[in-house]
Amino acid sequence: MNFPNTHRKKYTSTPLLKTFLLFFALYCSFPGLSAAQEKADIQGTVKDQTGAPIDLATIVLLKAADSSYIRSVFSDEQGHYLLTGVNKGKYILSASMIGFRKAYLPLTITPQQKAVHATPFTLIAEAKALKEVTVTATTPTVERKDGALVVNVANTALAAGNSALEILERSPGVSIDKDGNITLMGRQGVTVMIDGKQTYLSAEQLANMLKSMDGNNVQSIELNTNPSAKYDAAGTAGIINIKLKKNNMEGTNGTLSLSGGYGRTHKSNNSLQINHKTGKINLFGNYSYVNSNYNNTLELYRVVGQSTPAKVFDQYADFQNERTSSSVRGGIDYKTSERNTLSALFSGFFLNGNDHSTSNNKISELNAPLDSTLTTLNNGSNKYSNISFNINNTFNIDTSGRKLVAEADISRFSDKTTNYYDNYFYNSTGEDLRVPEFILNEMPSIINIQTAKVDYTHPLTSKSKLEAGIKYSGVKSDNDMGFYNQLNGNWQNNANRSNHFVYTERVSAAYAIYNHTLNKTEIKAGLRAEHTYSDGNSLTMNIRNKRDYLSLFPNVSLNQQLSDKHSVGLSYSRRINRPNYGNLNPFLFYIDPYSYQQGNPFLNPSYTNSYELSYTLLKKYTLTAGFQKTKDMVGEMMYQDDVTNIVYVTNENIANENVYFVNLNVPLAVGKVWSSNTNINAMHLGYKADIPTAPIDFGQFAIQANSNHTFNVTQSLRFEATWQYRSPLRWSIYEIGTSWGLDLGVNKSFWNKKAQVKFAVTDIFNTRPNTVNTNYSNLNVHVYNTWESRVARLTFTFNFGNQKLKISERNLESSEKNRVGK
Prior knowledge:
By secondary structure, the protein is mostly beta strands. The protein is built from 6 helices and 45 strands.
């Protein structure tokens, strides 16, 4: 096996310089952009009587002469709002929010003014309205916000009873393989975050956690292929952020969810959320219990040897997995002053699992009778826990928008996995061919993570602002794998396969982003610097690999509003994919006597340059074209020894990857009855590597499609359908087959919409198997994998306590705007 060269090339700023020159040329090419305009920006705040900011308040700008509507915006979570590019003259501002009296404010803009700081609004609560009005605003299932696709899963029938992993798998452009590896728009190297915090878990650990996370606790999923410099540079394919529900309604309220389902085995998801908000204090917490069993099958057919007679290994395995998990999450938001909020959050996740599998591997010569059979019985157990604590302080320095946010996290992950393998060898007649082989594999691991960051926002003028921040993260992973053979009834340590591996990683980062708006043009330029120190140390094998490097990650975007109906955008970013610390462990992970998985301590990070061009019509239909080039892509490789008949899998810097894609997102609504969102992603994935013995030069065009439909039969009855399709595609040396599926759900609400019953069936036609083939080099392997994708679930949800003033999205239309028919 040839590991790649660990020599690291120096970073060059040439792509960054070219990109900035390109944006400057484009910026100067728009007529009139450099001319000063007699316009001003209006900014202000909206608060309630206690001084607390009001989120989602509608701010309407009216002409003073006739009260005619001009435009409207919404306040943010800090109660701030901004109206840009307003002509000089006399106006009236109004602020409204369900449950509060509407307030008005006269305003005059003189020719000399460039920025106007309006008198703060203080809205007075209407007690009668709070008793009588309960508003639940609906949001589109999929929408584009701030350059990202946002999947709003809260309260949908298809989210009922599903795990977070199952919801993620049905999101536009997302695919998850049998090992838990996540791809976004066809590309691996995705960073998964929960509430904006990086998980730092391996693919298998992350998949186990998301499988056991109740989907009823998920608010939305953000898919961002080109995030700004504010985010960690890790993740060459982009960032997936899973946002959990958090209730900000006054008083005491909560939600109880009970769900049961059945596919090949039974499942149960149950959760309780409670929130209490009064005055300056907001207390929140939830607890969920998941009991999930699932059944998978694997068929693996491989031909060994290029000459006659070739040998055939025809394997069929059945996996039965049992999982029970509990998660708890609790926190407090304390408004220490009018401008400052201190928050603390504790979360814990605890999982117990048992795995049972039976594998029969039939061995023969090609086109010949059965020669022998290897039967492997596996019984395993898994105990996993994750405890984390977060503290956050948000300080709004003044009403101009200056803000300072400081945050710190401490997390500890513990994973103890034990597997017993019993191998039996039979001849063609079923008689013992040799003495059975009994193996014990213990894999305890502990991961400790500490992170701290500070983010600062500073408006320079009414049209420009500066964002800056620093971050530190430290990760230490300790894996002590023991491999034992049973001899004469006693377990004996196998020193050649046992391994103690300790990995340490420290990343220090700083970023700055400059944002400037002129007329209808917005330019954002950011730069992030990350210094990485890593130390992978195999204490058993005496292999140690240290790295110490500094990387720069520019991010530039330009957005031009051509008219009220048309806008275009152009962006560039550079990102990194650091090797997973589990993949750096040089251990041999045993599967059976003829197959194993091996780590690679010499993996290098890979870098991706991404370019995107977007067009938006009517502020909702979006078309995005992009190109992503990755150097030294980290990917899975398979090797086979034709003498020993052993096949093994490892990760290497295998090739350069070029990805071209076009993404179309189309939301549609027919009256109030039918609404839909269809997302289509067409892409070409290309891979090239100059390997002397077996060069890689593969590429293929592929399509992914996702279509969500909601039918509102009555105000209390809703039907939902989701259709997914993925054409055949090529990923490096692997050819992946077609996959498609249809999910159906129905939602019935009653008791004044406080209670809901949801029934959903995922993959109703059972058409989501996974087919993988490779004929690379001396490999001739075919894999067919099925899992429990068709599941019927019944979920009951009850909202109790104060449910007033429940606004779930910013795109509500104001009454003033509706009156003029816009």
